Amino acid sequence: MKPSQPRLVLAPPLPNGAEKDKNFLESSFFQIPNQHLPTPEQVRALSTDLSTSPQPKPVIFTDPDIFVKFGRYVSVGEAQCLWMVRQALGDKVPVPEVFGWRVDDEGYVFIYMELIQGETLLDRWEHLTSLDKEGLRDHLSQILADLRQLKQNCDQYIGSLNRDKLPDYVFQSLRQAGPFPSIREFNDWFSSLPQARLAGSQRYTDPYRHLLPDDGDIKFTHGDLHRGNIMVSSTSPPRILAIVDWGQAGWYPDYWEYCKALYTCWYEDEWRQDWIDRVLEPRFEESQVFSEYTMAIGAV
Fold first, then answer.
1. Taking phi first (over 0 means left), then psi (-120 to 50 degrees means alpha), and beta for anything else, what does residue 155 get?
2. How confident is the model over 158-203, as pLDDT tens digits?
3. What pTM did the predictor assign?
4. 127 by DSSP, 3-state: which?
5. What's 145's domain CATH number?
6. 3 state SS of 184
7. Distance between CA atoms of 123 and 119, rounded to whole angstroms?
8. Second label for 284, Cα 20 to 30 Å away, from 43, 143, 235, 257?
């Protein structure tokens, strides 16, 4: 089933990302009187791997249910993203409701959000019927079509939601990764990375640059769309409850979502072989170039 194409939706202005202590008082959590979010100290006390992992596992509180994603590699931008998607698109693009964030003196960011009671699509995949998979495919296709209707509320650029460097994992080792004022400038920069450490005399004419289109659109992109980040119900027929883990999301060229979806799974995987092309518009040439560049810079 081909997803319907809704009208463009203007992205709302973001909450102030410079705040270190933010509560979304309009969220469902604060509709119950005298409720308070756990402190960073309480989150740390319940962590099982804080002292051993640079990216500690999220902590779950019950009564009320709260899911806390935290660490030095967590960003306020992810909380802003959850807020923006929910504000702009509501239930059309299901995401966890965000209740607030904290930033402590050690630079750890704590994002407090709704706990999604379900299973990942990855965990449930082998137990689904073909009809179940088709239904989820149609639902996911529509969700992504709605997501791609978000429009920037300022001059166009490629970068993070708060107009900073691109948060994509591919670029995490690079100090400079935008923002860029146009797709052309991003493509020029991306194509230059494999030769960045070569002396001028060693550089060559890039045989792939012309395959990256400069005349596409800038789209809001999840950037890490794999089955482990798609939460589905345990009921039958299954339905998508939420898309999670928006830490790499931002404004990218319209080919980026497809390239990253391929990047996140093995080549022989059924999800890659049979389903991604039925959820997202295939961008075959761009994905080949993407693979060449990411391998060349060691982002594998």
1. beta
2. 999 999 999 999 999 898 999 999 999 999 999 999 999 899 889 9
3. 0.95
4. helix
5. 3.90.1200.10
6. helix
7. 7
8. 143
